[in-house]
Amino acid sequence: MDNTQTVDLQAIVRDSNVSEVLDQLDRELVGLAPVKRRIREIAAYLAVTRARKALGLEASPPSLHMCFTGNPGTGKTTVALRMAEILHRLGYVRKGHVVSVTRDDLVGQYIGHTAPKTKEVLKKAMGGVLFIDEAYYLYRPENERDYGQESIEILLQVMENNRDDLVVILAGYKNRMDTFFSSNPGMSSRIAHHIDFPDYSQPELLSIASKMVGAMNYRFDGDAEVAMGDYIERRLKQPNFANARSVRNALDRARLRQANRLFAGVGDGELNVTAQDLSTLVASDILASRVFDADTAAPP
Amino acid sequence: MMTNTNQRVTQGQFSFLPELTDAQITSQIEYALNKSWSIGIEYTDDPHPRNTYWEMFGNPMFDLKDAAGALMEINSARKTFPDHYIRVTAFDATRGVESPTMSYIVNRPAKEPGFGLVRQETEGRSVRYTIHSYATDKGEGERY
To answer: Does B121 contact chain A (CB < 8 Å)?
Structure first.
């Protein structure tokens, strides 16, 4: 082995276009600094693995099964989709598609139903990423005859034997995933990357709201943006806050109110609406939310 | 169709070639998936060429993205039926086609006894001929 031999690490990164995906991730996803850092580390690690391979420094393929923990609406699914893309570009998975499943897709209803069901899903996920949302539901300690355990065993076996065929990403809330792992040590030890998704801060949520509005071809007028900031501030303190998902729901309701406002305007004799009217959300569309009535309960 | 000099059943594609390796099977499956054909796995222990009723091993694999999934199923079929014929078929679901487009054997019994010629004397001096698989003298499941 010639230790002076060189390999162009930059070329590997360039050829795989991975920096493009990473930049897109930076641009499109607000906040999530620890997550982005971890993804960059994984990307760098994969590039180095490829460089080592080019120089004949063989190593067993790295295990890339991951666990995403975090509160609802913190972007676990979105990041999983991007992850598949990154892994595909770096040549770690062959196809780069994501199969997103929950307990229902893996666990059967009667004896002998679970194994074929789980295998079916695994077959579809080969060459890509298997994303198991709310993975802790797979294990139900209160029912010892639950078939979830069988599904977990098959998953473990495939995660170990077909390591270069698919990447499994488990997702769920932090404390429940911790319980899940403590009762399934085999699962925990086969997952190399535990990534925790932090909650968003109010300014981050506001910039998420602006991005969402832009993506829906709407825009805030000046007052509406302030009102949205205020809305997020209040909503944050209420129960059942689901981060970006709550923001999206709030925007959906604001669009409803905007449509209603325009409709009512037509009744008052204003017959024509401009494209600008159709795409502008004003403060009153947001301020009409129940969040601003101090006494009433939070909207669902 | 029947037997060649190597005492092997030759049905479907590639049957005059040496056994396909897993890597070769993978690239054949990959070819089928690229054409969006669905992969099915079938097995039988009746090698007669007119036997079109092979049993399905599991469901046909629709919306499969990668050959590794099918290969996993092939290996599990081999484990379950080590002494049966196992073939892989590719089904083209395109409207108007709707038929298998590929079919090749991926597993066969270690010893294939082959076929004998059966003569049946009928009216007058005419003789009817047919072939008979020696394996099918035994009951289903005990043939190999």
So the answer is: no
The Cα A37–Cα A34 span in angstroms is 5
Disruptive mutation site among B65, B74, B76 for chain A (greatest number of A CBs within 10 Å) = B65
- The interface predicted TM-score of the complex, written ipTM, equals 0.79
Q: Are A82 and A36 in contact (CB under 8 A)?
A: no
Query: Where would I find the H helices in B39-129?
Result: 67-80
Asked whether the beta carbons of residue A94 and residue B66 sit closer than 8 angstroms, the reply is yes
DSSP B135: G
Task: Give SS3 for A163.
Answer: coil
**Is there a contact between B30 and B67 (Cβ–Cβ < 8 Å)?**
yes
Q: Do A102 and A137 meet the contact criterion of CB atoms below 8 Å apart?
A: yes
Helix (H, G, I), strand (E, B) or coil at A79: helix
Identify which of B98, B141, B79, B112 has the alpha carbon closest to the alpha carbon of residue B8: B112
CB A72 within 8 A of CB A243: yes
Report strand pairing: B38-44 vs B55-56.
Answer: antiparallel
- The SS3 assignment for A107 reads coil
pLDDT in tens, A103-157: 999 999 998 899 999 999 999 999 999 999 999 999 888 887 889 989 999 999 9
CA-nearest residue to B63 within chain A is: A124
Q: How far apart are CA B69 and CA A165, in angstroms?
A: 9
| Chain centroid, CA A152 distance in Å | 22
Q: Provide, as residue numbers in chain A, all residues whose Cβ is less than 8 Å from the Cβ of B68.
A: 94, 126-127, 162, 165-166
Q: Tokens at residue B1, please?
A: 């169709």
Instruction: Measure the CA–CA gap between B101 and A280, rounded to whole angstroms.
Output: 55
Instruction: Give per-residue pLDDT as tens, A20-56.
Output: 888 888 888 888 888 888 888 888 888 888 888 888 8
Note whether B105 and B13 are within 8 A (CB).
no
DSSP state letters, A177-206: HHHHHHH-HHHHHH--EEEEEPPPPHHHHH
Q: Give pTM, 2 decimals.
A: 0.82
Buried b (16+ CB within 10 A) or exposed e, A219-254: ebeeebbebbbbbbeebbeeeebebbebbbebbebb
Angle between helix A148-161 and helix A114-125 axes, rounded to 10 deg: 30
Whole-angstrom Cα distance, residue A283 to residue A224?
A: 4
Determine the 3-state secondary structure of A221 from DSSP: coil
In this predicted model, what pLDDT tens digit does every residue of A65-111 receive, in sequence order?
999 999 888 888 888 888 888 888 888 888 889 999 999 999 999 98
